[in-house]
Amino acid sequence: MDSANNNNFNWTNIGFNKNVCSFYNTVLFFNKLGINGEFVQDNLVYSKINVLRGLHFQKPPREQAKLIKVNNGKIQDVVVDLRVDSKTFGLVETFELDDIKKHQVFMPRGVAHGFIVLSDDAIFSYKVDNYYAPNHESGLKFDDNSLDIDWIVDAKDIKLSIKDKSNDNIIAEIDQFLYLLLIINNEKINKKKTTDPIYAGASTNG
pTM value? Predict the structure, then answer.
């Protein structure tokens, strides 16, 4: 298994030959990348030409890391970094994935993901390290001007679901992201104060 980090991003584009079967070995996969994690759910998607889905993500604390693989056909895969502490925050990267080269893309938690089908139809699978949480799902507009995504398909030919037509722009979503992260961090701090003797009875003055 060969892996190479993109010059600008932390996504990992992974090529597999016919003799490699480690896609389904979670421990081996994460060990190879030097990442702590475990896949808990597999998803299978079927879609037709020019259908665009995204850009999807789950809000804290239910973010998901994903490993994307095309089983049949060809797609353009797009990722947007929403990690506010990342050097590539707000930047976009795109990949073309198909059933010939059999490359896969791993994306960490805290990113938005979308795709558009380039072949007549496509089937692809993706593994996630956190379960689907409908109350935490959200999305970005595929044509958000601030993202300036270079979709291969002409805008007039793109087929978008009703759900994805209601996605927000990145500025609005990031505001919510930061708010949720603040709440989660405060909860962790408050929990530590009640359980850690170092904080027991500590003064809040000064």
Answer: 0.72
Residue 136 is among the residues annotated as catalytic for this protein: no
Beta strand 2-5 pairing with 74-81:
unpaired
Residue 2, CB-side half-sphere exposure with 13 Å CA sphere: 8
Q: Which of 46, 126, 131, 136 is flagged as catalytic? A: 126
Tell me the residue type at 102: K
Is 56 tagged catalytic? Answer: yes
Q: Do 153 and 47 touch, CB atoms closer than 8 A?
A: no
- pLDDT tens-place string over residues 28-38: 767 777 777 78
What sections of the chain are H helices per DSSP? Answer: 26-33, 162-165, 170-195
> Residues, the chain, total?
206
**Distance of alpha carbon 20 from alpha carbon 158, whole angstroms:** 35
Active-site residue, from 24, 46, 56, 179: 56
d(CA 96, CA 132): 25
